Amino acid sequence: MIRVVLADDQSVVRAGFRVILELAGDIEVVGECADGPAAVRLAHRLAPDVICMDVRMPGGDGLAATREITSGAQQGSVPAVLVVTTFDLDEYVFGALEAGASGFVLKDTEPDDLVDAVRRLANGYGLVDQTVTRRVIAEFARRRPAHTASADAAHQLTARETDIVRLLARGMSNAEIAAELVIETSTVKSHLGRAMTKIGARDRVQTVVWAYQNGMTS
User: Fold this and answer.
1) Largest distance between two CA atoms of the chain
2) Which end of the chain is more exposed for a tag (fewer CB within 10 A), N or C?
3) What architecture is the 2-141 domain classified under in CATH?
4) Which CATH number fits domain 146-213: 3.40.50.2300, 1.10.357.10, 1.10.10.10, 3.40.630.10?
5) DSSP string covering 104-158, please?
6) Which pTM was predicted?
7) 102, 121 in Cβ contact below 8 A?
């Protein structure tokens, strides 16, 4: 069962998301809150798999909460943060991506897409194959060029690792990358894991951000 926390200051939004997610059968909403600080507390207390995080909440926005929640990655497993926003190209979204969010959906997303997003994040996949996310990442990378240390990491990647990161940035899944390169899916996962370690990326979405920042998307 996928454990989810909902963080949104609008109770009607939380109620709607709860109904949509719990109808899926494999998702349980274990907590709700109306501001960022409460989301941080619930993340520590309930250890959910995914937090659906609004970025604009009067009692404390989701930006600082996302940063605080994801900063615990080095101490062990942390929830994946799914940013829920009204605007797909919003300064708050860029900030959440920088803070470590793993994916994005719009508040008017289709129910099936919301369920799919939660499942993907729970399984360790960011929403890198979604049009909105690719646009956000591309704009984010344009506004925030890679710093020297990050760019230098590109030289540490092998040719195969470079190919895999480039295909990931195009929105391909592991299976699609394996088919493109005529290798096993397990091989893709191994190479990608080593590449992520070299570039200091926490997850797949952060790897795609790095690829955009370093011109590896062509």
Assistant:
1) 51
2) C
3) 3-Layer(aba) Sandwich (3.40)
4) 1.10.10.10
5) EEETT--HHHHHHHHHHHHTT--STTSHHHHHHHHHHHHHSPPPHHHHHHGGGS-
6) 0.77
7) yes
